[in-house]
Amino acid sequence: MLRTVVAxxxxxxxxxxxxxxxxxxxxxxVSGAFVLSDAVDAGLREAVAFETRGVDASIGRTRGGPDLExxxxxxxxxxxxxxxxxxxxxxxxxxxxxxxxxxxxxxxxLPADERLxxxxxxxGRFPDNAGEVVMERGTAAGHPLGQPVTVFGxxxxxxxxxxxxxxxxxxxxxxxxxxxxxxxxxxxRLEPGAGFSEIVARAVxxxxxxxxxxxxxxxxxxxxxxxxxxREAAAQLLSQIAPDSAEAAGFFTAFAVLAMIVAAMVxxxxxxxxxxxxxxxxxxxxxxxxxxxQVFAGVLAEASVVGAVASVVGLFGGLGVAAALQAxxxxxxxxxxxxxxxxxxxTVVAALAVGVLVTALAAALPAWTATRVAPIEALRTPVEGxxxxxxxxxxxxxxxxxxxxxxxxxxxxxxxxxxxxxxxIAAMVALxxxxxxxxxxxxxxxxxxxxxxxxxxFGLPAKLAALNADRNPKRTAASAAALTIGLAVVALVxxxxxxxxxxxNRGLDQQVTADFIVTSVIxxxxxxxxxxxTLAAVPGVAIAAPRQSFSADLGAHGGYGMTAVRGDxxxxxxxxxxxxxxxxxxxxxxxxxxxxxxxxxxLAVGDTVRAGRRDSPVPLRVVAVYDGGRxxxxxxxxxxxxxGQLPAVAAEGSGYDGSVLVGLVAGTDAEEVRPVLERAxxxxxxxxxxxxxxxxDQLAAPLRSTLDLLWALTAxxxxxxxxxxxxxxxxxxxxxxxxxxxxxxxxxxxGGLRAALTAESVFVALxxxTCGLxxxxxxxxxxxxxxxxDAEPVLFTLPWGRLGVLLGAAVLAAPLAALVPARRAxxxxxxxxxxxx
Amino acid sequence: MHGNTVDSPTAVGxxxxxxxxxxxxxxxRALDQVSLDFPAHRFTAIMGPSGAGKSTLxxxxxxLDTVDAGRVRIGRTDLTxxxxxxxxxxxxxxxxxxxxxxxxxxxxxxxxxxxxGLRLAGRRPDRAWFxxxxxxxxxxxxxxxxxxELSGGQQQRVACARALVGRPDVVFADEPTGSLDSRSGAGxxxxxxxxxxxxxxxxxxxxxxxxxxxxxxxxxxxxxGRVAAHLPRPTADAVLTALAGLGA
Lengths: 837, 248
Hints:
By secondary structure, chain A is an alpha+beta fold. In chain A, strands 14, 15, 16, 17, 18, 19, 20, 21, 22 and 23 form a ten-stranded mixed sheet that branches. In chain A, strands 3, 6, 7, 8, 9, 10 and 11 form a seven-stranded mixed sheet that branches. A four-stranded antiparallel sheet of chain A has the order 2-12-1-13. The longest helix of chain A is centred in the N-terminal third of the chain and has 48 residues, at 230-277. In chain A, 47% of the residues are buried. Mean pLDDT of chain A is 79; it is low at 382-388. A six-stranded mixed sheet of chain B has the order 6-7-8-3-9-10, with helices on both faces. In chain B, strands 2-1-4-5 form a four-stranded antiparallel sheet, with helices on one face. By secondary structure, chain B is α/β, with parallel strands linked by helices. Chain A: Pfam families: FtsX (PF02687), MacB_PCD (PF12704).
């Protein structure tokens, strides 16, 4: 039997190659997803290891402990066994760009001990004196060496340093490492009185980390100070930033599961066709005396060999995919990305399991069916005439799954967010199952309808295509299903993200009618009090009003984050949705409460609150209840008062996030006024001017990068699905060689034959894409309903443009998938084709 | 020209045709300088032992295969040198086929199979002619069935109807009874003869069966890629004798 297996492998190189390609692609997809998931983790570990390199002990301050000052550092340095100790501080240090406007940045101090520096010098040298600075290489773009770099101090004053070098470090992974490095004296100038956030120490040779920690703990002997080993410090740092990366890793794992499902479907489909085509050959083996079990084992062995070889190819292909995606994501992000390709046992096991097991399983089912048929019958009946029709049990399971899915969806809508999420996922899986189950039942009618619709336009090829797709609805549905799953996920993610984006923008779009918002780059440094008047004087500006967030004491109701705004800004610059009362302006002694505050305190229009200091409370009358979203620089907080009321109700020194809202005269072009406004801001160097469009971009930015990576990944899923369609078509072409030759003999042109196959591919793609889009959008609707909370509402909006791109891409990619099989079908010699049995 | 066909115009002809299968050491001259004319409105049988080049000759005549040398002509059209598209048009407009293994599309009904060639050509079927053909073949009650639901003989009659419905210049039948029992075979052969005598068709049939050959007006014997003999009005016995003579 083994010899037959080997002979079988060598006798059909083309068919096996097609299946092997399908397997390799699928496995590459799975291993790529796993490698990416591990790469995120590896990137993080690398960044943490870099940040804590050389550190044998880390001294931190616990809550309520004393500041880590120079004295503490000096004490640590005196501990025997400490070779070197350095204080670490990071301060906010906005950079002034070429246009004179501030950009967010941060600075840290240069450790004197070279082995405790978490930087690798790239160019130039490290600073020698307090007037010099080095920058992270990516940030340094546009700043030539030897030129001055201007930085804002915490007091708002400008400090100038000479750029003497650049340094490298692993890609930022949420550690928040500062891009500017100065000598400690220089850092003190930027923020006098800044203590250390951490003191790190290096041991002399021969002293272990635990020993060093024990020595330092004993020497310091102070309450509120914690000393841990370098390894523990690294673990702590990792756990602090892990939640973010755990989210990313979870996402990649979910994606790997998706990859496995899509790959399994493509492989199963491909091998099912392959074995079905060989039913006659298997029957012949039976006729000449092979046992049922021998035939079955032979097919399995063959499938396993092909699966194993293709899996190994796919596994390494996956490493390439992961590396390429990281490089692409880095390029999109505008920085040189560190590429990690960690190959873990999990990846290898998952990839090989998918490749070998799925292939063997996919081969086992049709092989088993083949061995059930009486040998002589299989030899007699022409295989091509047999079509797999969908059965009743399929319809029943489809209905059951549909009922389960809809039921879960209904319950999900009524449940709270936690249970709702679980129920939503259950509903989506059940609906997907229903769709897959019902696929073969609807595939026939759908392609027939498509054929009828298209035949007036494309003539007979469309009709032939529909006939061919209808011939084996199970196979058609299975080819379409891989695309359905891929597109469902893309559509789901796209729609939900669009919803989140719209919700984030809603606050901006609905409540902000200002054209520009001016904020301070240093949150604790307020904008000049006269800035609003300066801006109001700019030609084209209709109104400019200051706004301020603060903590208010609402007496019996407790403390809340509120907003003070000049009363006349309401209605002209800010227009929150008013739920009750009136909010066209706000006067002294009046208060508007948010929906959330009204619900928490029971306050309603007409009520009076006693706010401010206990000894001299101010009565505030509630005049409106409003609904407001979060907008940086135009946040409405939980309650609104007139700016004049601020000193009386604000807790001491609690003002923050001050801004000036600017409204233009109707009909003025914002871009024309912008340079004038920028010039007017020259007296307020910390002020940052943002148009509403800038803010919208900033709000969407964090989502965008996620979405880009997601699209890249799911595009791969869709690519695999198309490879599956191409594969199915190719195998069908081989199976129909004789029929194609007959059609050609009867007068179908080469072009006509190609058109028929192309149309078939388009029909399958349309079927798969439509089902996928419907499922994805439906699930997105469910998720947006379930996940939406008052604090973070998620709207359901249809991103028509992006969904259209998806459908269009699917329909345009279909002819590409048909290209090779169609060429092959048209090339076959007529007499050879006719002779083929 | 052969004595009994002088009065008939020739429908199809080959002149000095050479066709080589394979190359190098394994090259076989399937047709070696064959020249033949097939008269119109006649039923011609091409006979010969296996490997004589019968099927190759018909494939070349019908534009399904190309020749390595010589000329092939249908009516006034020279097939050699025609483009693939022109050959395709010629096949669908001027040639009909009946194959040994029926070659019907399993997905469509008998009637759709009959009309497939016309559909491919975008031609409107002549209903009266369609009825004549279908009734002559006794297919009327079977038109709505799919090929899988028909017997072998019925399937071959559907194939005959498909070949004739477009009123081709010539119908080629390659071992049309090879897959049929003798009764069904006789039915098909009888129809082919009727289509020549009563409907005025031209039929060229390849067969190795002497009984099948006896339905023809004229027989051509091929051996080793060459014309070995002409048998006017062949009978089964005459064919057997001629075949036996080849072996000698």
